[in-house]
TrEMBL record:
PANTHER family: 2-NITROPROPANE DIOXYGENASE, 2-NITROPROPANE DIOXYGENASE-LIKE PROTEIN. It comes from Phenylobacterium parvum. InterPro entries: Aldolase_TIM, NMO. Pfam families: NMO. The keyword Phosphoprotein does not apply. The lineage of its organism: Bacteria, Pseudomonadati, Pseudomonadota, Alphaproteobacteria, Caulobacterales. GO terms for molecular function: nitronate monooxygenase activity. Keywords: Flavoprotein, FMN, Monooxygenase, Oxidoreductase. The keyword Oxidoreductase applies. This is Nitronate monooxygenase.
């Protein structure tokens, strides 16, 4: 399947693995890239730019295919060393960066000078247009159903993707809520040139997370996610658990007076305990509504090839019959 996205990134299948905190390690990115998709290392999971440089080198030992690095620009009092992370990416020869949070305008000149392609992930048409204007090469259009941060506009992909198609000149992938070939075919029909998946990739054999996390995803239904931190305008879609229930009770009790410090136990530094130690109630962790469509733990190759085969079969078979 050739699209503007496979051409842009030099990959076989139009399937991207979005950056995921404490999931997007070298093992994850290499497995996706080796399967013909675009694997992405999550930059900020590495504590320092030096650690990121090591992770990039480790990934390169596991694959000779293209892979990228995610850089998430978070609102923060003590921001991470972003210029250092950008240096680590450029100096170690990575040619694809997925940015998220704020647009990457500040770093575009350096990234472009180094021949790096930038795919920016955002949840609205206006942010997509801004990213296009500052020189991004592609957009990951992230609908309201996505795991992680859906923004505050709450526009689901059935509307957001065709709206993006109306406005954007650069190619975009459909992100959020995608797990199978029916949805790849639908995404292409709506104007996207491929898909970006987060939650689905966690439930794969190669994902470097505790089996409890994979099992929790297989067990959950589409009704099991919750939105947290809305009062802080930092909305996150997470899998429901005891910590999330506690967090939501605090949000209800404190209303507009809620501060980040009030919920620090439920959201601060919980990822290693969940992803590595499998303590499933340790805190709130990002997860999409797409859990309802995830029933198995395949290899990345089985998953990606299965999705593409299903999409091709739908396009040639079911859809062709309607035309
Ligand atoms: C556990 C988890 C952690 C994530 N961490 C990040 C992150 O650090 N940076 C980022 O840009 N997106 C992050 N995301 C969002 C994904 O890259 C992707 O956009 C999203 O999962 C797509 O929605 P889906 O889960 O429905 O496929 C995370 C998602 C999950 C499920």
């Amino acid at each position: 399947m050739k699209t503007r996205i496979t051409e842009l990134f030099g990959i076989e299948h139009p399937i991207v693995q979005g950056g995921m905190h404490f999931v997007g390690l070298a093992e994850m990115a290499a497995a996706v890239s080796n399967a013909g998709g675009l694997g992405i290392i999550t930059g900020l999971t590495q504590r320092t730019p030096d650690d990121l440089a090591k992770e990039i080198r480790r990934c390169r030992e596991m694959t000779d295919k293209p892979f990228g690095v995610n850089l998430t620009f978070l609102p923060s009092i003590n921001p991470p060393d972003y210029p250092g992370y950008i240096r680590a990416i450029i100096d170690n020869g990575v040619k694809i960066v997925e940015t998220a949070g704020n647009n990457p305008q500040k770093y575009m000149a350096d990234l472009k000078a180094a021949g790096v392609k930038v795919i920016h992930k955002c949840t609205s048409v206006r942010h997509s247009l801004k990213a296009e204007a500052v020189g991004c090469d592609a957009i990951s259009v992230d609908g309201f159903e996505c795991g992680g941060h859906p923004g505050e506009d709450d526009v689901p992909n059935f509307i957001l993707l065709p709206r993006a198609a109306e406005e954007l000149k650069i190619p975009f992938v459909a992100s959020g809520g995608v797990a199978n070939g029916k949805q790849l075919a639908a995404a292409l029909a709506l104007g996207a040139e491929g898909i970006n998946m987060g939650t689905r990739f966690i439930a794969t054999k190669e994902a470097p997370v505790h089996d409890n996390v994979k099992q929790a995803i297989v067990d959950a239904s589409e009704l099991d996610t919750r939105l947290v931190m809305r009062p802080l305008r930092n909305t996150e879609r997470v899998l429901n658990n005891a910590a999330v229930q506690r967090l939501l009770e605090k949000e209800k009790a404190l209303g507009p007076n809620l501060k980040f410090e009030d919920i620090i136990h439920e959201v601060g530094g919980v990822y290693p305990r969940i992803m590595q130690d499998g303590e499933m109630d340790a805190g709130a962790w990002s997860c999409g509504m797409v859990v309802g469509l995830i029933h198995d733990v395949p290899t990345c190759k089985e998953l990606i090839e299965g999705i593409v085969a299903e999409a091709e079969e739908i396009i040639r078979g079911r859809l062709a019959r309607f035309a």
